[in-house]
Design goal:
The chain has 293 residues and is α+β, with helices and mostly antiparallel strands. It folds into two domains: 240 residues, Bira Bifunctional Protein, Domain 2 (BirA Bifunctional Protein, domain 2, 2-Layer Sandwich); 43 residues, SH3 type barrels (Roll). The N and C termini lie far apart (41 Å).
């Protein structure tokens, strides 16, 4: 089943949302936001991108796999969301699985076409999607954090995970598929995942998944528009302000073993920087460092 919807949000709203963004940051000299291109950008910001088109399939092996197959056959409308009640082979990072009870949670994949984003800035998409989920959760709970690179935590428990698959052609991101698993109404977890939690477990409330999907789409859409309008500094500042265990001493494990360190920052290309008590600083790519929970 495919549904389409367009937002009638006024352009002036985005003037308020993005007051300090460099709208020309992602364009070359021939694409600056003046004249015709400026009008096109204003129109783009005035409509809903993420969630403008919904594809629902009752059961799927994986929403990310479905999105990838869709892109092979046709280019869907940017912001198309594929959502399902159940995934038989939900995908996590590097082959990890994602447990979700049938009809209890949000299981979605978003198709983005961020050709204006340089591959060197692709981590901004991950940051924006993480922040969009946090914005959604803050409608219902006070605090959440982002465990680098893009797991969403409440205290020390994981409530959502993100899997982003980018296709890069030359100097452009051809497309990006953002898969999101967000625990909403599930109250029993049977896998060996150490620390799952859901909104229901946190608040005692059962949530309408349709309402939640609409709200999440809106929050992700707002954050994605920060990316395409060049608000990288704002995104980075917000991301770091929510970073799990930032500037606190905890144990980590790398190839040399377990050590005590504190997270200092995340680099522009998404590497995690940690300082040891000896003062030595190290940078890690994903899967090169393990948090000791």
């Amino acid at each position: 089943m495919i549904l389409s919807r367009k937002s009638t949000t006024f352009i002036c709203i985005f003037v308020i949302v993005f007051p300090f963004c460099n709208f020309n940051a992602n364009f070359n000299d021939n694409e600056k936001t003046n004249g015709k291109n400026g009008i096109q950008l204003a129109i783009l910001l005035s409509i809903m991108i993420i969630g403008s088109n919904l594809i629902f399939v009752r059961n799927l092996p994986s929403t990310n796999t479905y999105a990838g197959q869709l892109l092979k056959n046709q280019i869907p409308e940017e912001g198309t969301i594929i959502h399902t009640n159940y995934q038989s082979s939900g995908k996590g990072h590097q082959g990890n699985s994602w447990e979700s009870e049938d009809g209890k949670n949000l299981l979605i994949s978003i198709v983005l076409l961020p050709s204006m984003i340089s591959p060197s800035d692709q981590f901004s998409i991950s940051m924006a999607m993480s922040l969009g989920i946090c914005d959604f959760l803050n409608r219902y709970i006070r605090t959440c954090s982002i465990k680098w690179p893009n797991d969403i935590y409440v205290n020390n428990d994981k409530i959502a995970g993100i899997l982003i698959e980018n296709s890069i052609m030359g100097y452009q991101i051809e497309y990006s598929i953002t898969g999101i698993g967000l625990n909403v109404n599930q109250d029993r977890f049977l896998s060996d995942a150490p620390n799952p939690v859901s909104l229901k477990l946190l608040t005692g409330t059962v949530y309408d998944l349709t309402v939640c999907l609409n709200q999440l789409s809106s929050d992700l859409d707002n954050r994605y528009k920060q990316v395409i309008t060049g608000c990288f500094d704002l995104i980075r500042t917000d991301y770091l302000s929510r970073l799990y265990r930032l500037n606190e001493w905890f144990n980590f494990r790398d190839t040399d073993g377990v050590y005590s360190g504190k997270i200092l920052t995340v680099t522009d290309n998404g590497r995690l920087q940690i300082e040891r008590k000896s003062g030595v600083k190290s940078e890690y790519s994903f899967k090169e460092i393990e948090f000791i929970l």
